[in-house]
Amino acid sequence: MYFGGRFLEAGHHVSFFVREKRAEQLQKEGLKINSVKGNYEQKDISIHTAPETINNADIILLAVKGYHLEQAVSQIKEISKRTRAFILPLMNGVEHINRLQEAAGKERVLGGLAFIIATLNEKGHVKHTSKQHDILFGPLHESQHEICEKLEKTSKNINSNSFKKEDILTQIWKKYMFITAFSGITSTVQAPIGPIMKSKASLKTAKKSLQEMKDLSIKEGVSLTDKDVEQAFTQLKSFPADATSSMHQDLRKGYPLEVEHIHGGALRIASKHNVTLPVIETLYGIIKVREEGAVDMD
């Protein structure tokens, strides 16, 4: 909703493909962004709930939670087939890339990721609380350079930061490494980064999870380095004391969690290479009990 709103704000044609309940909310409330980078509101927006109503699209900006991917895949496949649109997933983790490529073809799926701390309030309005609002994208197939260049030009005038990266898979793994540690430590401790910063033991756990993800990336042919680990650790420590991950925000609200998509995905990749990730496995085990949302303690 945030990035779609920013493209809409800049005068580009944007439609929102959402579930029925969300469509009703958007029809009632409209699109509203409350942001440290500037507010935006639009009451009358284009909304779709069925693939067969979409006849024209260039790019599908896919921003669902990992646990909703399977529900969305068949619809995304149909929209891409009908329109020849490219799919730009802004999702955490890496497993979704192969899943989308299997469904829609390798030529259709771009590489992408986003850096933003945002959530929805009870009315479905976007609450953006960080200075970051960045999109990184790039080609995963040799035929995608032209569309990436077009997207780079299109996104220059929007109120967010958009960067074309030739090494997009490396960038995706850097984000995956970071979000595994950040979401893992904030969700297990159930606290924002401030209290974690005061605990050497908690910081050590976060750094070890970064190191495990770096080692895993090498197994996957993406050579992250110790320097990348240090940069991610520095970024973690640079956040404001009240900053937290989207997973921790969802946990506090009693919402489902992306733990299977993020931490579970890392463990599946590790199993494929016959390696272990003891810290990440521990974080996964602690968070997993809350995967479906609020836990009944009776």
Q: Which characteristics define this entry?
A:
single chain, 298 residues, alpha/beta, Rossmann fold, N-(1-d-carboxylethyl)-l-norvaline Dehydrogenase, domain 2, 2 domains, 5-stranded mixed β-sheet, two-stranded parallel ribbon
What can you tell me about this protein's structure?
The chain is of the alpha/beta class and 298 residues long. It has 2 domains: 2-165, NAD(P)-binding Rossmann-like Domain (Rossmann fold), CATH 3.40.50; 170-288, N-(1-d-carboxylethyl)-l-norvaline Dehydrogenase, domain 2, CATH 1.10.1040.10. Helix content is 49%, strand content 16%. It has 12 helices and 9 strands. The protein has helices at residues 2-9, 20-29, 69-83, 95-104, 145-154, 168-189, 193-197, 200-219, 226-238, 246-253, 259-272, 278-288; strands spanning 15-17, 31-35, 40-42, 46-48, 59-62, 86-89, 111-120, 126-138, 161-164. The strands form 3 sheets. Strands 2, 3, 7, 8 and 9 form a 5-stranded mixed beta sheet that branches. Strands 1-4 form a two-stranded parallel ribbon. The longest helix has 22 residues, at 168-189. The model has no long low-confidence stretch (mean pLDDT 95).
Taking the sheet with the most strands, its summary is: 5 strands, mixed
Question: Share of helix among residues?
Answer: 40-55%
Given the helix and strand composition, which structural class is it?
Answer: alpha/beta
Low-confidence residue ranges: none
Distance between the termini: 37 Å
Estimated share of beta-strand residues: 15-25%
Global outline: globular
Order of helices and strands: HEHEEEEHEHEEHEHHHHHHH
CATH architecture label name of the largest domain:
3-Layer(aba) Sandwich
Q: How many DSSP helices?
A: 12
CATH fold category name of the largest domain = Rossmann fold
β-strand number: 9
The chain-level mean pLDDT equals 95
Briefly, what CATH class of the largest domain?
A: Alpha Beta
